[in-house]
Amino acid sequence: KIVKSCVINAGDGSREHPTQALLDALTIKKKFGSLKNLRIAICGDIMHSRVARSNIEILNKLGSNINIIGPKEWIPKDFKKLKVNIFHDMKKGLKNCDIVMMLRIQKERIVGKIMPNKELYFNKFGLDYKKLAYAKKNAFVMHPGPMNRGVEIDSILADDITRSLIQEQVSMGVAIRMACLEILINNKDLYGK
Question: At residue 111, does pLDDT exceed 60?
Answer without folding.
Answer: no
